[in-house]
TrEMBL record:
Pfam families: E1-E2_ATPase, Hydrolase. The keyword Transmembrane applies. Its main location: membrane. It is found in: Cell membrane. InterPro entries: ATPase_P-typ_cyto_dom_N, ATPase_P-typ_P_site, ATPase_P-typ_TM_dom_sf, ATPase_P-typ_transduc_dom_A_sf, ATPase_P-type_domA, Cation_Transport_ATPase_IB, HAD-like_sf, HAD_sf. NCBIfam families: ATPase-IB_hvy (TIGR01525), ATPase_P-type (TIGR01494). The keyword Nucleotide-binding applies. It comes from Scrofimicrobium canadense. This is Heavy metal translocating P-type ATPase.
């Protein structure tokens, strides 16, 4: 019974049955000595013919009906909603061929059309393989800890906050946080990362990732439809069904084109009084390759992106991304890691070591909540003198720094304005203070020009030295900018709220085309709009939450590191599932490749129709040959689109 159901639902069943009948009919005719593919029948079904030829005719008619009836049903359904579909052209041609006795032509046309439809269905299913793969990795069961026991339940039955065990070889059933154990997870289905990722306590995990080693205890923070995997599946499903502007245009074009072909065939048949010519024109004019040329490319492109951890919202954004020639991005968290680290410790006072400067700074900053305090304290701990004792007093001076009382000494860490006042009042002569200030200024300027944030350290009014922190540039940022240029992006622009010196230093190392520093979110919006007014198609790279005005104004909003971020996945035009900067040029390259394939497919389809129509009027193309070439063009555009499923490799 299951076999019969599968056969009934298979797109290949109809064409297989029709093809089998055609082969049997041809064999019968050949055995009797008659060419089965010639124009050997004219007029009504002739019962005076020898029995074998009657059988051959009946089989050929049956082949035409088996393949043609479903086509006719679709044509009628389309007409009921006032749509003149391609199926109507084939139906009219097939029925007309039967009426005038061209049984082979009718059978060939309907068989080839049914075969082409089956091929289209199979190809679309294959191009949707990324979606099928995502659905396949969705776990069915979960092992949870309840009352100290391991209980296996449905993955959808896991409650928020429950502890889930993920053993080696198992699929992670929920989004969550590791609260115990360690191991490595294959997150390729979520982020596109090919190598397993090590997970320890405090790390995030995603539903659908596969454990390659270890045992993890995971506290569930997202279950069922609220997991990252479920959101990705939903987004890919919607995206593959969304139509690109070119596809919508082609569908509107075919609504006029198809009736036009019917009129052309009718006029040609009446003027020449050649029914076969008219019917052949109906078959030749079928815009099948034209109609499928765009959707198969869009689905393949979006599917390729999903496999690479690049979620594209739909065909519209795929086409727009192919036009991107300006990319705007933030510095912190995009070009840099977003986590400042201690980079420099410069002692200035006599008999003062590097360790002295760092230790006093860390002792003062351990009681501060300033964002730059943590890298100083962490830097001291990394060098072997962890700070645990809090200072007796802490005074935060807004816009200047911090002054703390440590073991009876007044320690200050801050900018030149703070140091100038403290040095003047705490040291000897005014000239000595001026000299110390000059040395501080020179050192701090030098560090600032290098893209670091310098802070002076003083002890009881005497400057000890300078420490500096910096947000580290991602090692692949320069390569990302180079790749963006290689895929056609003219300008890569940094829009940052950081100071100009730091921004310029980062831009110089990365190779950016333009830097705009000290910007508020509203100014970033103005910058994006300004680029658009100059004729640029602009992509804005953000996190899907911050810089919302600029993301909304850009032609394409791109969210980086969107895995696990529901807002980013749902609102971004393109979501890059992890923080791999290389996915940005890959996304633009994929969009350009997809649009290129779309244009190639349109050219293939139009050239085929023009050549065939010319051949028909010259008397060189028959109905069956025309349909064969037509279906060949369908196969060609499909194969061309399937090239998008291969991953693109950039040259280093």
């Amino acid at each position: 019974m299951n076999l019969l159901v599968r056969l009934r639902r298979s797109p290949w069943t109809i064409s297989a049955c029709s093809g089998t009948l055609i082969v049997i009919s041809a064999i019968v005719s050949l055995v009797y000595g008659v060419n089965p593919f010639g124009a050997n029948h004219h007029g009504a079904f002739d019962f005076a013919k020898p029995g074998p030829l009657l059988v051959a005719d009946a089989l050929m008619i049956a082949a035409a009906l088996v393949a043609g009836v479903p086509i006719a049903v679709k044509a009628v359904r389309a007409l009921l909603v006032k749509v003149v579909a391609i199926d109507l052209l084939v139906t009219i041609a097939a029925v007309g061929a039967l009426v005038i006795g061209e049984y082979w032509e009718s059978a060939a046309v309907t068989f080839l059309f049914a075969f082409g439809h089956a091929l289209e269905v199979r190809t679309m299913n294959k191009t949707r393989g990324a979606l099928a793969a995502l659905v396949a990795v969705a776990p069915d069961t979960a092992i949870v800890m309840r009352d100290g026991d391991q209980v296996e339940i449905s993955a959808g039955a896991v409650a928020l906050g429950e502890i889930v065990l993920v053993k080696t070889g198992a699929k992670t059933p929920v989004d969550g946080i590791v609260v115990g154990g360690s191991g490595s997870l294959d997150e390729a289905s979520i982020t596109g990362e090919s190598l397993p990722v090590e997970k320890t306590v405090g790390d995030r995990v995603f539903a659908g990732s596969i454990s390659r080693s270890g045992l993890l205890q995971v506290e569930a923070t997202g279950v069922g439809a609220d997991t990252t995997l479920a959101r990705i599946i939903h987004r890919v499903e919607e995206a593959q069904d969304a139509k690109a502007p070119t596809q919508s245009f082609m569908e509107r074009f075919s609504r006029w084109y198809t009736p036009g072909i019917i009129v052309l065939a009718l006029v040609a048949g009446l003027l020449t009084r050649d029914v076969v010519l008219g019917l052949t024109l109906l078959v030749i004019g079928c815009p099948g390759a034209l109609v499928i040329s765009i959707p198969v490319a869009v689905v393949a492109g979006i599917g390729r992106g999903a496999r690479d951890g690049i979620l594209i919202k739909g065909g519209e954004y795929l086409e727009t991304s192919a036009k991107i020639n300006a990319v705007t991005l933030d510095k912190t968290g995009t070009l840099t890691w977003g986590t400042p680290r201690l980079t420099d410790v410069v002692p200035l006072a006599e008999n003062t070591s590097r360790e002295d400067v760092l230790r006093w700074a860390a002792r003062a900053e351990v009681g501060s909540e300033h964002p730059l305090a943590k890298p100083i304290v962490d830097g001291a701990a990394a060098e072997g003198f962890a700070v645990k004792e809090l200072p007796e007093e802490v005074e935060v001076i807004a816009g200047k720094g911090v002054v703390a009382l440590v073991d009876g000494h007044r320690v200050a860490v801050g900018n030149l304005a703070l140091m100038s006042a403290l040095v003047t009042s705490g040291s000897g002569s005014a000239s000595e203070a001026a000299s110390e200030n000059a040395q501080l200024t020179s050192t701090m300027d030098s560090l600032a020009k290098a893209g670091r944030t310098p802070m002076a350290v003083s002890l009881d009014g005497i400057p000890l030295g300078v420490i500096a922190v910096a947000d580290q540039i991602r090692p692949d940022a320069p390569r990302m900018v180079s790749w963006l240029h290689s895929v056609g992006v003219r300008d890569v622009v940094m829009l940052t709220g950081d100071n100009a010196r730091v921004a310029q230093a980062v831009a110089g190392q990365v190779g950016l085309d333009e830097v705009r520093a000290g910007m508020l979110p509203e100014q970033k919006l103005e910058a994006v709009v300004g680029l658009q007014e100059k004729g640029y198609t602009v992509a804005m790279v953000g996190d899907g939450v911050n810089d919302a005005p600029a993301l909304a104004a850009a032609n394409v909003g791109i969210a980086m590191g969107a895995a696990g971020t529901a807002v980013a996945i749902e609102t971004a035009d393109i979501a890059l599932m992890n923080d791999d900067l290389m996915k940005l040029p890959r996304a633009i390259s994929l969009a350009k490749r997809t649009v290129s394939v779309m244009r190639q497919n349109i050219a293939i389809a139009l050239v085929t129709v023009i050549v065939l129509l010319t051949g028909v009027f010259l008397g060189e193309v028959t109905m069956a040959l025309g349909m064969l070439v037509h279906e060949g063009s369908v196969l060609l555009v499909i194969v061309n689109a399937m090239r998008l499923m291969r991953p693109k490799r950039f040259r280093e």
